[in-house]
Amino acid sequence: MCGIVGYVGENEAVPILLRALKRLEYRGYDSAGLAVVGNELSCFKDKGMIDNLQGSLPPIKGKVGLGHTRWATHGKPSKENAHPFLDCEEKIAVIHNGIIENHMELRKQLIDEGHTFTSETDTEVLAHLIEKHYNGNLEKAVLKSLKLICGSYAIACVHGDEKDNIIAARNESPLVVGIGNSENFIASDVAALLDYTNKVAYVMDNEVVRLTKEEFSITTIDGEPVSREVEQVNWTVEDAEKGGYEHYMLKEIFEQPIAVHNSLLGRIPDLTLNGFLDGRFNTIKIIACGTSYHAGLIGKYIFENFSKVPVVVEMGSEYRYSEPTYENTLIVLITQSGETADTVAAAREAKRRGSMTIAITNVVGSSITREVDYTFYTRAGPEIGVAATKTFTTQLIALYILGIALGLIKGTLKYDRIRELTSTLRKLPRYMQSVLDDSENIEKCAMTMTDATDVFYIGRNINYPTALEGALKFKEISYIHAEGYPAGELKHGPLALLTPQTPVVAIAPRDHTYEKMLGNISEVSARGSPVIAIGFQDDTELSKLADQVIFIPEVPALFSPVPITVVVQLLAYYVARERKCSIDRPRHLAKSVTVE
Ligand code: F6R
Predict the structure, then answer these.
(1) Which CATH class is domain 245-431?
(2) Which of 85-89, 175-179, 231-235 has the lowest mean pLDDT?
(3) Which of 6, 57, 227, 378 is the most exposed place for a label (fewest CB within 10 A)?
(4) Ligand 1 mean position to 562 CA, how many Å?
(5) Which helix (H) or strand (E) element contains residue 168?
(6) 272 falls in which pLDDT band (50, 70, 90)?
(7) Given a cut of 60, is residue 293 above it in pLDDT?
(8) Whose CA is nearest to atom 16 of ligand 1?
(9) So what's the pLDDT on residue 321?
(10) CATH architecture, domain defined by 438-590
(11) Which residues have any ligand 1 atom within 6 Å of their CB?
(12) The CATH fold of domain 3-241
C-alpha cells in the first residue's frame, strides 16, 4: 500500500503535495518523492518519511505535480526505488500504488527495445511503456499502456511538455478526484484532500481520469466517456485516514480480502520461489512469536499435508536457547514487522547452526531480511493497529504458497492437486468477504460475551491454532482473560473452570474432526457454558447444539483458518469496542517488539 497525490491549479504545487502526502503517511513511509512540471519536469525523491524529503528538497517551481509515499513491495526502500519514475528521456513521471504482476516480462521486452532502467521496481516499466506509446498525447499513451499490464494499480502521470494536465487511472487500488476552485486534485484517499476540498468524485476500476485546473473527465480504459457525480464528504482527517471506520483495527480487518488478493498476485506461477528451494532438508522448523507463532502452528499442518516433511514450531525466544541438533533442517521465520528481536536473533542463530533460512515478513528491507537466505514478502500494506490482523492472514497465504512449493520439490503434490489448491487460494478473498458481510450477526454474538471474565476458544487439528489466535486477539484488546485449547484437551483439566458465565467459542467446520467437535460442544453445554459455534453454512446439526452459530462459506478444511480468523478477529473487536477499550493501542503492548 502506498499513497499517491496529484495537483493541478494556480498555486505552487510543492507545498500542497507535501501537505497532502503527510496525510497519507499512514499508507506507507519508507521513501517519498515528487515530480513537478514547471519550465521542465523536475523530480526529487529520498529514502525515509515525508519530513526527510521536505528537509532535503531543492526549490522547485511549478503548478502541476505528483507526490508519492511508498510502502515497498518490489525492491528495497531506497532513493532509487522511490517514486516517481521517469522514462529514458526524463519527460514522463509516473507514480503508482499497487502491483504490476507481469512486470518481469515487460521489463525484459523494454530492455530488449533499448530502454534503460534505474530501479528494481515493478512501477518503472509503466514509465517506459508510456514513453514507448507517447506520440504527443499523454492520455492516449496511458490508455495503450494500461492494456498491456496485469495487476492492481492506482497511477498518476505527467509529461514535461503537457503543462496543464495529469492523467490517472485505477484498477483495484483506490483513487479519488478532489474538486477545488480553479484547482483539482487526485489522491489515494480523501484524507489527503480534506485540507483543500471536501468535494470528491470516486474513480472506479478500469477507468482513466484527465485532470486540468478547470475540470476533470473520466473514460473507461477503452476510451468511452463516463459521467461521475461529485459528492460532498463530511469526514474529519482522522475519519478519512481510517476510511470511515471507527478504528484502524476494524479497517485492517475489512482490508483483508484485498490484502490476501495482493499477496497472491503473480505468486502462483512462481511456485519454486525462483528456483531457491532444493530438496536437501529432511525436517522443517518454523520460528516466530505471538500471532506470527500461531501462523506458524497453522503452517505445520499445511507443510506436513503438502510435503510430508515433519515440522516443529518454536517460539523465537525459546529457539535461541535450545540445544542444536543435527538434522538437516529448513528454518522458516515468520515476523510481520521483520524487527521482533527474538525472531531476528533466532534467524542469526539458525545461520550459525548452518541451516537454510527463509523469512516471511511484511516489511521490505526489515532486519530479518538481512539475516536470511530468502525472503517471502506478504503484501498486507502497513498495519497501524497494534493487534495483527491482515498481516496474519497474509502470512497464512505465504505458508500455503510455500507449502505448495515444498510439495512440488518433494514430489508429494501432483499437478491436479496443485491446480485444486491454487484454485481454492484464489477464492479465499471472496470467502473472507462473505464473512465480513455477516459482521452484524457476529457483532450480535459478541454482545453476549462482553461481561465474561473468562472465555475459552476450542478447535481441533488445523483450527486448534485458530482457537489460540482467537483467544490472543480477544484478551489483548478486550482485557478479558481468554484461552485457546485443543478441544480434546478440555477434559484433562480446563472443564473444571466452565460455568454459565464462561462462554466457549467452538470452531467446528465439517472436517474429519467434526463429529468429535460436536461431542466436545455437548460436553461444554452440559456444564452450562454458553457456546458460540463457528461452522459451515447451513449446518443444522451445529445449530441444534450451540447457543449461537456463526456460519462461514464451506471451504476445504485446510483453508478454513482463513475465513474463521476473520470471525474471531471481529468477535474480539466488537467486545473490546463495547467495553470502550483502547483498541488500536492496547495497554502495555507495542507494534514492534525490539527487546528480548
Ligand atoms: C498480537 C501481535 C503480536 C505479534 C508479535 C510478533 O496481535 O501482533 O503477538 O504477532 O509481537 O510480531 P512480529 O510478527 O512483528 O514478529
Answers:
(1) alpha beta
(2) 231-235
(3) 227
(4) 17
(5) strand 162-171
(6) low
(7) yes
(8) 335
(9) 87
(10) 3-Layer(aba) Sandwich (3.40)
(11) 289-292, 335-337, 340, 343, 387-388, 472, 476, 593
(12) Glutamine Phosphoribosylpyrophosphate, subunit 1, domain 1 (3.60.20)
**Which runs of E-coded beta strand occur in 402-555?**
454-459, 481-486, 504-507, 531-536, 548-552
Is the model's pLDDT at 204 over the cut of 70? yes
* Cα–Cα nearest to 76, from 107, 32, 121: 121
Is the pLDDT reported for residue 275 higher than 80? no
Pocket test for ligand 1, best of 249, 252, 292, 337 (most atoms within 8 A of CB): 292
How many Å lie between the centroid of ligand 1 and the Cα of residue 380? Answer: 14
Main-chain phi, psi angles of 32, to 5 degrees: -150, 160
pTM: 0.86
- Residues 523-579 have pLDDT tens digits of 999 999 999 999 999 999 999 999 999 999 999 999 999 999 999 999 999 999 999
User: In Å, what is the CA distance from 135 to each residue of 139, 142, 164, 251, 445?
Assistant: 10, 11, 17, 42, 60
C-alpha cell at 260: 490476501
Question: Diameter of the chain by CA atoms?
Answer: 80
Measure 435 CA to ligand 1 centroid, in angstroms: 24
Q: Please tell me if the domain spanning 3-241 has the same topology as the one spanning 245-431.
A: no
Ligand 1: atom nearest CA of 294 is: 10
pLDDT band at 392 (very low <50, low <70, confident <90, very high): very high
pLDDT value at residue 270: 60
Count of C-beta atoms within a 10 Å radius of residue 328: 11
CA of 291 to the centre of ligand 1 (A): 5
- Whether the per-residue pLDDT at 67 is higher than 70: the answer is yes
Ligand 1 atom closest to the Cα of residue 290 is 9
Residue 466 CA to ligand 1 center (angstroms) comes to: 15
**HEC readout, 322-387:** CCCCCCCEEEEEECCCCCCHHHHHHHHHHHHCCCEEEEEECCCCCHHHHCCCEEEECCCCCCCCCC
Confidence of residue 302 (pLDDT cuts 50, 70, 90): very high
pLDDT reported for residue 273? 65
Average pLDDT over residues 77-94: 94
Residue 395 CA, closest ligand 1 atom number: 14
pLDDT at 241: 82
Kindly report the protein residue whose alpha carbon is nearest to atom 13 of ligand 1: 335
Cis peptide leading into residue 563 (ω within 30°): no
Give the ligand 1 atom nearest the CA of 340. Answer: 16
Q: Say how many Å lie between the CA of residue 361 and the centre of ligand 1.
A: 11
Give the catalytic positions in this structure. 2, 591
- State in Å: Cα 151 to ligand 1 middle: 29
User: Which residue minimizes the CA distance to atom 11 of ligand 1?
Assistant: 290
Within 10 angstroms of residue 227's Cβ, the number of other Cβ atoms is 7
- Please tell me the distance from the alpha carbon of residue 414 to that of residue 547, in angstroms, as a whole number: 42
Q: Where are the domains of the chain?
A: 3-241, 245-431, 438-590
Contact status, residue 405 vs residue 273, Cβ threshold 8 Å? yes
Please name the residue whose Cα sits nearest to atom 15 of ligand 1: 337
Residue nearest (by alpha carbon) to ligand 1 atom 5: 290
Ligand 1: which atom is nearest the Cα of residue 316? 16
Give residue 277's pLDDT.
75
> CB burial class (10 A; 0-12, 13-18, 19+) of residue 424?
middle
How many other CB atoms sit within 10 Å of the CB of residue 503? 28
